Amino acid sequence: MSGSTLSRSPVVRAGVLAIVVALGIVTRTIVHVVRAAPIPEVPASTSVNVAQLTRGPVPPPADIQSAVENDLFSPDRSAPSSPYRMPGERDVSDAPVVEPVKPAVLGTAVATDGRNFATMQLGDEGPVLVHVGDKIGEWTVKSIGRGKVVLVTAAGARADLTVPKPGT
């Protein structure tokens, strides 16, 4: 095969055409890279440094004047109506209050020297004698009077119990 026959071959012509197309694509890519669009200007207020990225946002400045106006040690100051709760912390006042079982008063005895006592029964337990200050279940005896006993719990619940009338 001579050089002139080889150049007329369709395979050689396709190869040369492929090389020319590839050179055109490479040239276009190089021109596109060199003529890149300019980088837009960034406003100065949005500049960020590495310390800000790791620390997070800056908290707002403290309101000193408000703290001075609300004097921490003022004698007129009072506690808030509800205690401060952390975000997500459950409020115990939302929980239903379960009052403990109240004992039954079977009888009372009032003495002249103030040593009153009562006979009480808690649920299915046997009757017990109690004096002021004694505990029966979760209740503490606060006072004993004629036919009446006042009980309180540690949570502050109060119960005024009376001796039932016969036949009830």
Keyword list:
25% helix; alpha+beta; 168 residues; elongated; four-stranded antiparallel β-sheet
Quick overview of this protein structure:
By secondary structure, the protein is of the alpha+beta class.
Spatial order of the strands forming the largest sheet? 4-5-6-7
Helical fraction equals 25-40%
Biggest beta sheet attributes = 4 strands, antiparallel
What percent strand?
A: 15-25%
Question: Layout of helices and strands, plus pairs?
Answer:
Layout: H1 3-7, H2 10-34, H3 50-55, H4 64-69, E1 104-109, E2 117-121, E3 128-130, E4 135-136, E5 139-145, E6 148-153, E7 158-162
Antiparallel strand pairs: 1-2, 2-3, 4-5, 5-6, 6-7
Give a structural overview:
The protein has 168 residues and is an alpha+beta fold. Among the domains are: 3-34; 104-162, SH3 type barrels (Roll), CATH 2.30.30. The chain has four helices and seven strands. A four-stranded antiparallel sheet has the order 4-5-6-7, with no helix packed on it. The chain has a three-stranded antiparallel sheet with strand order 1-2-3, with no helix packed on it. The chain starts with a helix and ends in a 6-residue tail after the last strand. The relative contact order is 0.08. The model has no long low-confidence stretch (mean pLDDT 83).
